[in-house]
Amino acid sequence: MSLVEVHNLTKIYQKEGVEVHALRGVDLNIEEGEYAAIMGPSGSGKSTLMHILGCLDRPTSGTYVLDGDDVSRLPDNQLSNIRNKRVGFVFQSYNLIAQLNVIENVEIPLFYMGWPRFRRHQRSLELVEMVGLADRLYHRPAELSGGQLQRAAIARALVNDPRLILADEPTGNLDTKTGQEILEIFNKLHQMGRTIMVVTHDAGIASMSNRIIHLVDGRIVEDKVSEKVSV
Q1: Domains with residue ranges and CATH for the chain
Q2: What contacts 97, CB < 8 A, 6 or more positions away?
Q3: Which has more pLDDT, 173 or 97?
């Protein structure tokens, strides 16, 4: 079953009065349970595609069907609702709130979904423990290492039980050993049946996935099954 269906997707930006064609007619299907990597040079459209798939942006033209719903032209409030309930994000820069501790950061999506405090805390606690941060519950971001920050970000991405997990260069700010530990978490999530898409420029990271999609100048130039490497 296709979780993501994209047909003839385009995205055009206006930059200093000049049209920038970030995506040029992208067609893409992602099946439920796939682990796919999106690769390409800078300016290839990777992040633009990620933002559209994550309902952070809309295409200029074309269609995007997420979990059976066409989200291409939804108004902001409906798009935000689908994003909050169906998509989990893991960013290179973590995007944690400095004033909040780990458990509070993880709870944020559930707060906006209206979960009562006790249920938010219990759900978040389960995930913080799962990613190996049970001894850092009440630490703030400034007190954590890069790997710990990314573990917290992964827990937050999972807290709403998303249909799709999107990761944008998730090991970009980490050393090799810590990066491998984060990739192992993604590997375990995939084994649990999660659908994961990772944007990366690193062929080694892409090789952890089951499918590698190459973008160049806003077009998919290669889409192949990967011989997955275990971490």
Answers
A1: 33-61+80-225 (3.40.50.300)
A2: 104, 105, 108, 141
A3: 97
